[in-house]
Design brief:
By secondary structure, the chain is of the alpha/beta class. The chain contains seven helices and ten strands. Helix 1 packs across helix 2. It comes from Enterococcus ureilyticus.
Length: about 240
């Protein structure tokens, strides 16, 4: 486990962008699973400038690792819509390089990635409860591959689903799909990043405490190639 602590959010975002770029420059197919949300916003701003109209990066393929479908809207779900707005569209990524995960193909996701050569890197955030992707406490176990999480989702997850669709009860789905812990751990490299004081407690708990299903991200500490990128506030309890 390598921990990188930068002074502030902008600097940690630049480091995260650099790590992804280092993978992209390889002379082979590169498979990346990337995250949406608020933490990567600045990183994508850097990456857009770095990758837009760079035809020599057409070897890079992108996978979303979870998806929350809208209940009524058609087309992409929450995750892919966010990734499109944050990165794929402004960076002019060729659609042939984007491989969405959704409720129609989640059962074949792990085989598809394996046949594509496996994930070279997966970029994760972390929730205050220690979740990553859609792996909240009580929703998946360490043995789960890519999964459908249905109406038995926890109350916390139901609240997250509601917030992800803008608080619109009419659009809140009753399920989502996610790469499970076992799927994530098959990636050749894991990069997790976090910003802000509100993440300091869970960073210490997840990566300096016991490995437990109660803190899903704690499993990541046993991955042989894990990098954690933090700003000083997120790292304040481990410095």
């Amino acid at each position: 486990m390598k921990i990188i602590v930068e002074e502030n959010y902008a600097q940690m975002s630049r480091v995260a962008a650099n790590l992804l770029l280092g993978k992209m420059y390889q002379n082979k197919r590169v498979n990346l699973a990337i995250t949406a949300g608020s933490t990567p916003v600045k990183m994508y701003e850097y990456l857009i400038e770095d990758v837009k109209n760079k035809t020599y990066l057409d070897n890079v393929h992108y996978y979303n690792f979870d998806e929350i479908p809208y209940k009524k809207k058609s087309g992409y779900g929450v995750t892919m819509n966010n990734l499109n707005k944050l990165f794929f569209e402004p960076a002019a990524i060729n659609p042939d390089q984007i491989h969405p995960l959704d409720e129609t193909n989640y059962k074949t996701q792990d085989l598809r990635i394996e046949q594509d050569g496996g994930l070279d890197l997966i970029l994760l955030g972390i929730g205050a409860d220690g979740h990553y992707c859609g792996n909240l406490p009580g929703t998946t176990t360490f043995e789960d591959l890519t999964s459908y999480v249905g109406e038995d989702a926890t109350e916390d997850m139901q609240e997250i689903l509601l917030s992800e669709v803008g608080g619109d009860e009419n659009e809140r789905p009753n399920f989502y799909v996610t790469m499970g812990p076992k799927s994530v751990m098959q990636a050749k490299e894991i990069v997790l990043f976090a910003t802000g004081k509100k993440k300091a407690k869970i960073i210490k708990q997840a990566f300096f405490g016991p490995v437990t299903n109660n803190v899903p991200a704690s499993l990541l500490q046993v991955h042989p190639n894990l990098t954690i990128i933090l700003d000083k506030e997120a790292a304040s309890e481990i410095l």
